[in-house]
Amino acid sequence: MYGGGFIPDENPKKQTEAVAEDPALLAEFQARIDRGEKIEPHDWMPAMYRKQLIRMIEQHAHSEIIGALPEGTWITRAPGFRRKMALIAKVQDEIGHGHLLYTAAETLGKPREQMINDLLSGKSKYSNVFNYPAVTWADVTVIGFLIDAAAIVNQLANSKGSYGPYCRALERICAEEAFHLKQGHDAFVYLATGTPQQHEMLQAAVNRWYKPIIHFFGPSDKESVHSEQLMRWKVKMASNDDMRNQFLDMYVPKVREVGIDFPDPNLKKDPETGKWNFSDPDWDEFYEVIKGNGPCNAERLAVRKWAEEKGRWVRQALATPYTKSTVPLA
Ligand code: BYC
After folding, report:
1. Model confidence over 181-210: pLDDT tens digits?
2. Which stretches of the chain score pLDDT less than 70?
């Protein structure tokens, strides 16, 4: 039995108010979540659970396909054949992740075309980090190591969540991301331990990416809008601050062991609490970037619009029912 159906173009807050849901169904739903059961597409679910999952999975799918762009521009310039092949494979994987995630979001009732339209119109968000340029090869290296590492922390947590199709997509994505991480780490260590110029180029890239990486996990738990409810529903399995802390725990040592550092004198772990402290990462910049005013937002969407227009004939050809050819075969 379907629960609250997908209502396009509605404010999620208005939708919860509009759909009065049976308290017994709501209680049974929460009990299933608390027992650790997976929710599947045809199960009853609160309208807001559906709406929130669509928002999150759709943003995640957009992040994968937009996320392929900064790295994609480096395929022709990657240093050497081995790095080129690895980058081509990685970019293909990221697009594949987008497809998996759009399919998972479609199980909740929102058509893929509408998701793409919402991306192109600027209505849907995607990850802040992909609105920054990959200026040098070292930026691609930082993306391949540290952005993928950050994504794995988030995705591993969420793959243990409550919505079956999203969790299954995340499990597969994590397996591939683990491989991306290895090639990212290899490229990172290579530059860090290379010539002084390579080391300097890598440090400069880490300096550029530090704040966007801190932003990647979302606003602090105090400022997060959706975390509380999403964690109750086990859509999110860790809070933004906990994921950020886990990332810093795992990756600050790996960065420092090769003589690179994050450009923040206040980045220190408090031995009492086990939490990392850091300087204010300028949350105003984060909100500007996710509103569409980052350094590359316009460029990223322009490329996607171009691809959408140029690829329309292929989609139309695929969607056209087969008719017997009138051209005689030789
Ligand atoms: N960027 O209430 P909050 C990859 C928004 S791609 C943009 O804490 P929530 C890769 C948030 O949407 C992997 N917006 O939100 C690909 C909300 O705004 P709305 C990308 C952000 O949902 C290619 C508002 O801020 N990963 O790895 O509880 C190459 C308040 O936030 C961001 C995912 O997409 C952000 N970083 O928690 C290489 C993971 N953070 O919607 C690599 C899936 C927050 O109310 N998403 N906002 O207008 C999630 O896990 C969660 O959505 C977040 C945020 C933890 C990101």
Report:
1. 999 999 999 999 999 999 999 999 999 999
2. 1-19, 324-330
Nearest atom (ligand 1) to Cα of 147? 42
So what's the pLDDT on residue 285? 98
Q: Is 270 exposed, middle or buried (0-12, 13-18, 19+ CB in 10 A)?
A: exposed
- pLDDT digit string, tens, across residues 283-326: 999 999 999 999 999 999 999 999 999 999 998 999 888 776 66
How many Å lie between the centroid of ligand 1 and the Cα of residue 162? 18
Q: Kindly list the structural domains of the chain, giving each domain's residue range(s) and its CATH number in brackets, ordered by start.
A: 43-304 (1.20.1260.10)
Q: What is the pLDDT of residue 114?
A: 97
Pocket-testing residue among 140, 231, 240, 246, ligand 1, by greatest number of atoms within 8 A of Cβ: 240
- Alpha carbon nearest to ligand 1 atom 3, residue: 224
